[in-house]
Structures are given as C-alpha cells and as structure tokens.
Predict the 3D structure of the following.
Amino acid sequence: MESELAYALDTFYFLVAGAFVMWMAAGFAMLEAGLVRSKNTVEILTKNVSLFAVACIMYLVIGYNFMYGGGYVLPGFDLILSMTDNTAEAVNAGGDDAPYYSNLSDFFFQVVFVATAMSIVSGAVAERMKLFSFLAFAVVMTGFIYPIQGLWSWGGGFLSELGYSDYAGSGIVHMCGAAAALGLVLVLGPRKGKYGADGSVKAIPGANLPLATLGTFILWMGWFGFNGGSELAVASVESANNVARVFVNTNMAACGGLLAALITAKIMFGKADLTMALNGALAGLVAITADPLSPSSALATIIGLIGGIIVVFSIIGLEKSKIDDPVGAISVHGTVGIWGVLAVWVFSGASLGSQLIGLGAIFAWSFGLALVVGFIIKALIGLRVSEEEEDAGVDLAECGMEAYPEFTND
C-alpha cells in the first residue's frame, strides 16, 4: 500500500508539473503577441497554438522514441498508446529498478518540454516567416532535432556518460531552441526597416506591453513546474525538500535577473526599460534551470542577477550584428542558457570540459540542422513573406484577419 501511495503521488505530481509547463505555451504566446506590432498579432498567436499541436504529435509519433528508446526503430502510432500504466506487480516489488510513476506521465512531462523549445523559435522569427514554412520546420525540430540531442544527455547518451550536468535544461531545452532560432534568423534576414542604409539600428516597438508583462508572469509561474517537476519525485521527505528548494531558487533567480536588467538598462539608457526588465526575469529563470537544486537561495539570486546583466548586453550586441530577434529570444534562452550551463561548473563543481563539450555538441547540432533545414524549406516552398505582405502585416496575408480590427480605418 505504501508503494502504491508513493506511485500515485509521484505520478500526480509529474502530471501537475507538466500542466504547469504546458501553461508556459500561453506565456510565450502572450509575450510574443505583446512584443510584435499589432499587424502581426494573429499570425504569431496562430504559430504558438499550432506549434504546440505539432510538437505533441511529432513527439508521440517519433520524438519520444528517439530520445528515450535509442532511436533505432521508427515507432508506429501505438508506441505511446501501448505504454499504459505500469503493472501493480512491478510497483509493489520495490527495488531500485521498480517504476515509481506512470510511463504516460513521463511522456506528458517530456512532451511539453519539446513545445517549450519550439516556442523559443517562434519569437525570434516573428513578423516575416511564412506560417506553414514555420510549421514545416516545427515538424523537424520537434520530431528530430530536439529529441536527438536530448538522447545524448537525458536519454543516457554520450553527454551523460561524459558527466554533462543540466538539471532541467538550460542547454538541452533553452540553448537548443535558441541555436535553432539563430540558424533560421540568419537564413531569413532582418525585418524590413530594422536597419538604416548606414547600418544604424532602428527600434520597432511592440504593440502591447501589458500583454507582454502578463506573458512574463505566466512563464514565471510555469517555470515552477519546469524546474520543480524535473526533480521527478515528491513522495519522500528528501524529494519533497528538494522540490521546495528548487521552487525557492527558481523564484529568487528570476527576481535577481529582473532587477539586474532593470538597473543595467537604467545605467545604459537613462530610462527604466520594461522590455529589458521582462527579459531579465526570463534570463534569471533560464540561468538557474541548469541547477536550481544545489545553490543556496542567495547564490541562486546571484546566478539570476548575472543572467539579467548578460541578457541586456547580448540583446544590444545581436542587434548591432544585424541579427534581428524581435523578442530577444536568442539572448534570453541562448546566451543566458550558456551561462546557466557554465554556472554549474562555477558554483556546483561540474567538470568544465564536460559542460563545454555539451554546449558545443548541442549548439552545433541544433544550429547546423536548423540552417540546413531553413535553406531546404526556402528552396522548396519559400521561407519569408513578400515585402508587400510584410508591409501590410502578416495577419492579413497569412490568416486573413486582424487582432484589433476596431482600430483599423475602413
């Protein structure tokens, strides 16, 4: 009975944590909808809701098997459907090899991570990438690119054997998504009007900062499931204490990142930049994701604080390099994702060599494949909307409707 109760509790916790991470999809949608121009709002929302469906189906059909089944056989549609709850005999038998949560709860928790990685891409390519070209890329990203590099670490592959340490995925999820986004952005090029003839950077403000702020709070909340659920258990005193520590450290890192970015922006620009503050909070969350368990609460705040400073300089640096990322996703999830993985070496004693090899392998795979797939999609069906469609806004061109029609003159 005791083992069954622990099994039920761990399974329930896994499912609730997965639901929290799924709610992050709403956070990404609101954040991106707030940071793009009003004429591109419907299309970015369509991308976000569609990518979630694509990610879930592709991970069911192929991705989960690649990541946790060795990737040797392409599964049929019954792969996960046949993975029913674990047998009562195995649960009651106990021992180190006994399952302590439902297999299906594991799939549910893993699949929402895949969608998170793909959501990073949608913000970076906003306002100029064709909707169905984006979804074609999502098929490859969620079914192949993400699961293969996930196999190398969480699936027990060579990075795991080398000792690469990444508790909830600063590199495996966030840097992977950002590296893929960078590859696509380089193929796409910057938005029209982003740079002057002399190379000067022109600001393109988002349409709805209240919405972007709401999106940030939703992501912040969802991150408790993202990091807390990665403890993978809650039914013992030790695991329950670990979950509590992860929750506190996750929250403190976000606070440190937000204030650091806000102060850095004030020093650099003379104004309190809300968008930098929002990205600072997310940067703090990304930074602590690689190890939210080991540090003290004060140290977690410092790790997030450093991430908040880094993200401001990264956003400015990428803009000056003519890498146009409307929402700062590459900086938040990529540049700070690298810092998060290295912070495990700096503060938690992980091997520097293992962390660097992990970062290099994940980046090379995700960036390289995204670049290749981007060029293939461009050659086959086109990657970018026309200049006329970009001027008018991709809402009308791609979706045939507007997000705020009452503000449009007839």
Summary: Residues 128 and 191 are 7 Å apart (CA to CA). The longest helix spans residues 2-35.
